[in-house]
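Box 3.1 A note on notation
Throughout this textbook, protein chains are presented in two layers. The first layer is the amino acid sequence; the second is a token string describing backbone geometry. Keep the layers aligned when reading.
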Amino acid sequence: MDNNKNGKIIWGFKKAIDGFRETIIKERSFNVMVIIAVVVIFFLFYFPTSRTEKAVIFATIFLVLALELINSTVEKIMDFVAPEKDERVRIIKDLMAAIVLFTCFGAVVIGFIVFYPYFRF
């Protein structure tokens, strides 16, 4: 029975990696966010940031990326459930995009708070 449980866990990880690969290949906005995250991580280690600042920035990055994954998932579900134009579907998709945008604004504020001292002229 343990082998079956381990097999299911491994299968689950493989499916998660497949989903991540699909996202990287097909979701342009996710890729843009990953590129921005890489730049932010570079600055995070370039400047003498504290462990707390690093933790906050990493948590923020993962939150934004996770919400973008959720947004992409909801969009795909809505396209499957209602492939024809539907005002209700448009509103749901817009709301999901607004959630991601709102979180991105929060991430920018957090980034500004952490990095501002290093960019003062």
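The first helix runs from residue 2 to 26. The chain has a mean pLDDT of 93.
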